[in-house]
Specification:
about 450 residues, alpha/beta, eleven-stranded mixed β-sheet, two-stranded antiparallel sheet, about 40% helix
Length: about 450
């Protein structure tokens, strides 16, 4: 003890840091260092200036703003409570976007954070939509809070061409244009999903636009089954589309029939081709679209479900019922793999004020972005734009191979952050809000909520 004090005094004389140090070489800090439990950690004591702290650990001296909102957890370095609401960064003036992204390796704690965040936001008056629940993890959450869990397929239908009810204050002309656009986007998304990301040709898109128009005019029944029958019947042979001659129109009809008929008579039938038999309750505190019944290796089916459910979510948002909603894409890669869904997500992010929504995407390794093409490709530029528009970024442990992608996404990423991110403890995430707030946060989970949120059963072999 004496020797340590002498060394500390000697260091103080040579460091140029004039603030005094504690007379004890260690201090004990109590806090939550595992989900649902407490622990003790011995940390070497150190007092320093704000300037030096900002150099050594930028998230400790980054001008942290106390956000309004529900309690999410504690700041891992100080133990102080951390509150957050998706709209609080905008109210605090540190961001202009209410959108966010969560990134982290498997088992790093990102799913536990998202569940904690979502349930606490419900208590704050927000409503939650889970775009896809591939593991059935969110179903338990919905059941616990009195929400709605919906599963489609095997004769349980959800029509992606439903347009919902007309919002008050919207005139008939604008509503017609909105409905036509949404149905056209929904059809394009389905075609792109069935073709593993290949978007419809310009000629095919013109024909789909014509079909969407006739659905809104009442000339075609707004279901995929009716569209396939129309393409194969009189409508497909006679519908005039500017720029298409008879031969080109016939070729487009044939190709679209071959694609969309998989939903009507193929292996994907029984989910989206007819009028809805499942009805969404927009007032539910949380709506979970359960996709756990889909084989994780069936990428086409998963993509189709994501595209169809995306259209349903837009119908809820465009109703403008006065509720504020968080849209969470649990499997962000399924959205990013479909160019049409990328466009739809981008539009949703830009319509946050009009539609009263905050969009959150969960990703794993940023190095997986290579799957979507080189950085200079059009698809990657759109994806990078989506990630950039997500001004709240919650970063959990990443492998060293992902740091270069993270640095490209965050040009002001410091060397200390690059060093710390691959070494973050499980459950600790780096909150970066705008360009001002950087803080390490560990969610606080109650003993009641922990078994509902926990997804680690079997991970550790006991």
């Amino acid at each position: 003890m004496d020797r340590a004090r002498k060394e500390a005094r000697q260091e103080e004389k040579t460091s140029g840091d004039v603030l005094p140090r504690s007379t004890s070489p260690f201090r004990r800090v109590r806090g939550l260092f595992g989900f649902g439990g407490t622990g003790m950690l011995n940390l070497p004591s150190h007092s320093t200036s704000t300037y030096r702290a900002g150099v050594l650990t930028p998230w400790l001296a980054s001008g942290v703003t106390e956000f309004e909102g529900p309690l999410i957890g504690k700041e891992n370095t100080t133990g102080t409570p951390f509150r957050f609401d998706a709209w609080s960064p905008v109210r605090a003036g540190v961001a202009t976007s209410v959108n966010g992204m969560v990134v982290g390796m498997m088992g790093s704690g990102k799913s536990m954070f998202l569940k904690t965040f979502a349930v606490r936001e419900i208590s704050y008056g927000r409503h939650i939509i889970i775009m896809s629940d591939p593991k059935g993890e969110w179903v338990r959450v919905a059941q616990a809070v009195g929400g709605q869990a919906l599963s489609v397929g095997h004769g349980r239908y959800m029509n992606p061409l439903d347009i919902g009810r007309k919002p008050s204050g919207v005139d008939d002309t604008q509503w017609f244009m909105d409905c036509q656009s949404r149905r056209s986007v929904a059809l394009s998304g389905l075609v792109s999903s069935l073709r593993e990301g290949q978007v419809p040709s310009s000629a095919e898109q013109s024909l789909l636009d014509a079909a969407a128009e006739d659905m809104c005019l009442g000339r075609l029944k707004p279901t995929v089954t009716s569209l396939v029958e129309a393409l194969d019947g009189e409508w497909g042979r006679t519908r005039e589309v500017r720029g298409l001659n008879d031969l080109t129109r016939d070729q487009c009809c044939r190709s679209l029939i071959l694609t969309l008929d998989k939903l009507v008579h193929g292996s994907l039938q029984g989910a989206f081709e007819r009028e809805s038999t499942i009805h969404v309750d927009p007032s539910a505190p949380i709506i979970v679209f359960d996709t756990s019944g889909i084989d994780s290796n069936d990428t086409i089916k998963r993509s189709v479900y994501t595209a169809a459910l995306s259209s349903t979510i837009d119908s809820i948002l465009t109703a403008k019922d006065g509720l504020y909603r968080l849209i969470i894409a649990e499997e962000g890669w399924e959205v990013l793999s479909n160019p049409m869904l990328v466009d739809a997500w981008d539009k949703r992010m830009r319509m946050t004020g009009e539609w009263a929504c905050s969009n959150w995407m969960l990703l794993h390794e940023l190095s997986d972005l290579e799957k979507f093409g080189p950085p200079e490709s059009e698809q990657r530029k759109k994806i990078d734009g989506i990630l950039t528009l997500s001004e709240t970024k919650v970063i959990y442990k990443q492998s060293p191979s992902s740091l270069s992608y993270l640095a490209a996404l965050l040009p002001d990423l410091t060397d200390d952050e690059k060093y710390a991110i691959p070494r973050l403890n499980r459950g600790v995430g780096l909150f970066r809000v705008g360009d001002k707030v950087r803080v390490l946060v560990h969610p606080v989970v109650s003993r009641t909520a922990y078994p509902v949120f926990n997804t680690d059963k079997g991970r550790f072999g006991n």
